[in-house]
Amino acid sequence: MFNLNDNLKNKKFLIYGYGKTGNASYNYLKKNNKISIYDDNKKTKNSFISLKKIKLTEFNYIVLSPGIDINKCKLKNYLKKNKEKIITDLDIFHLNNPNNLKITITGTNGKSTTAKLLFKILKDQNKDVKLVGNIGIPILSKNKIKPSTIFVIEASSYQIDYSQYFKTDYAFILNITPDHLERHKSIQKYAHAKFKLILNQNKNFYAFIENNKYLNQQLKKYKTRSKIIKVSKNDNKVRQLISNSYFDNINNLKNLSFILKFAKVYKLNKSKLLKTVNLFNGLDFRQQVIYKNKFVTIVNDSKSTSFSSSVNLLKSYKNIFWIVGGLAKKGDKLKLPSKYYKNIKAYIFGRDKNFFKKKLNNKIVSKSYSNLENILKKIAEEIKLNKNKHYYILFSPSAASFDKFKNFEDRGNYFNSLIKKIKFVKKINV
Question: Is the pLDDT of residue 370 over 80?
Fold first, then answer.
């Protein structure tokens, strides 16, 4: 096993998975170590190693990229035999920078937005802070690290699950709803993967968690050492502090509640914090308000890939036109209280129209369409005929995008391009 006296020099590493994380790990380690690379989906390059040679080589460590499923990859038997050697880029970073302050944010939904907002808040308070992790910036890609540098880290369940040595001073677990169960196998195992952040903390660390039944089960089952702070849903009290309409919806407001709890513990300047919050525009395609006038507010939430990521948005408004569809998650369920049904009309698109039609049947009025453009034309007609109300167009698909798009960004950009064609919002700048 690894110990802190081992400085990761003159070792043999196998990097498994050569995307952004694997590439950053290679560049970080290559100067002082012997590195071999393997990737299920890439052809052999100069530093790549064959399956046969892997089995004949004695590696000190296996740096596993989070996208690799240990149960479904080409090296699954090898990895299971050498599980104690598996580490992540988070482990490597922590072992080489144990004293830098780390704030790690995880949860089913809202990780990226919360991480970005906290980063901006700390930056505006003149902190030396870097934003890294699952948000698309590998932690090992950062240099010019000072002892005072703070790291805001977005971490997925996969990264945390594979990590052995990573420790974080502050842990945020925003929420837990069923997700990635094809890999974790059960909601309890999924929750435990997130909860490892807390189990690795010591008594001087803090953990901010949602008052969630799955997390409460973990708290009952395992002894923790850090200070646990449960974040309540006291929305009205939080809402009075801000004037930014971005926080009109429940999801964004709850994520802000975590930051406000942290700010109190960390003793951030409150006036500077509120200034940053009130200027925050959010991230593209994550519950992003892209247009607003006296008749309509349009929200692009292309990042939504399950019902759980759309539910709080549906609870936040009235007179909703909900655009939903794509590649559905098997077994996904819409857990929306019936009192909200009357506020919503659903417009279904994409490959799995029948799945969504069945899930919404006898709950929400819905109709299927051949494409997104026809949906938007229909909604525009309805709004023009009923100008006595303010409507919300929620593009929150609750499904993966791969039936027709490269990714959720591609889907979000396409939606924005269609919005420009609609007459009553033709001047939109997205």
Answer: yes
Residue 242 belongs to domain spanning: 90-279
The residue among 279, 299, 334 that closes a domain is 279
- Give the pLDDT confidence score for residue 25 in this predicted structure: 96
Q: What is the pTM of this model?
A: 0.88
Burial annotation 45-60 (CB, 10 A radius, 16+ → b, else e): eeeebeeeebeeeebb
User: DSSP alpha helices (H): ranges in 222-286?
Assistant: 235-239, 250-266, 270-279
Per-position b or e across 143-170, b if 16+ CB within 10 A of its CB:
eeeeeeebbbbbbbbbbbbbbbbbbbbb
pLDDT exceeding 70 applies to what percent of the chain?
Answer: 92
In a domain, 348, yes or no: yes
Place of tokens 């964004």: 252
- End residue of a domain, out of 233, 262, 279: 279
Whole-number Å distance between alpha carbons of 376 and 321: 10
* Measured distance CA(159)–CA(174) in Å, rounded: 16
Distance in angstroms (rounded) separating the CA atoms of residues 116 and 246: 14
Q: What is the pLDDT of residues 244-278, one digit of tens each?
A: 888 888 888 889 999 999 999 999 999 999 999 99
Same domain membership, residue 79 and residue 189 = no
**Domain match, 271 and 149 both:** yes
How many residues are present in the chain? 430
Residue 321 maps to which CATH number?
A: 3.90.190.20
Amino acid residing at 269 = N
Rounded Cα gap, residues 366 and 167, in angstroms? 47
Same domain, yes or no, for 144 and 257?
Answer: yes
Is residue 254 included in any domain, yes or no?
yes
The values of phi and psi at residue 246, to 5°, are -60, -25
Same domain, 108 and 194: yes
Cα–Cα distance measured from residue 100 to residue 96, given in angstroms and rounded to the nearest whole number: 10
